[in-house]
Design goal:
42% of the residues lie in helices and 18% in strands. The chain contains three helices and two strands, in the order ααββα. It has a two-stranded antiparallel ribbon with strand order 1-2. It starts with a helix and ends in a 7-residue tail after the last helix.
Length: 71
C-alpha cells in the first residue's frame, strides 16, 4: 500500500509540474482518480476521450468490456 501511495504521489507531482504522464491500468478507481483524460481500448478500438468527472465507473467498465460510446 505504501508503494502505491508513493507512485500516486509521484504522478500527482508530475501533473502539478505540467508533465504528461501515460497511465495504463486495469484499476478503474485508480484511473478515475489520477487521469485528466481517459481513453479505453477494447477489441482493437479506442473509446473516448473523456475528461475526469465526465465518465462514471460503470461507463468506464462498459467501455473496457467493449460496450458503449464516448461521452
Amino acid at each position: 500500500i505504501k508503494t502505491i501511495r508513493f507512485v500516486h504521489a509521484l504522478l500527482d507531482r508530475a501533473r502539478a509540474d505540467g508533465r504528461g504522464v501515460l497511465l495504463v491500468s486495469s484499476d478503474l478507481d485508480e484511473i478515475l482518480h489520477l487521469a485528466d483524460r481517459i481513453v479505453a481500448f477494447a477489441a482493437g478500438r479506442a473509446v473516448g476521450p473523456a475528461s475526469r468527472g465526465a465518465v462514471t465507473r460503470a461507463e468506464l467498465g462498459a467501455w473496457i468490456a467493449g460496450h458503449g460510446e464516448a461521452a
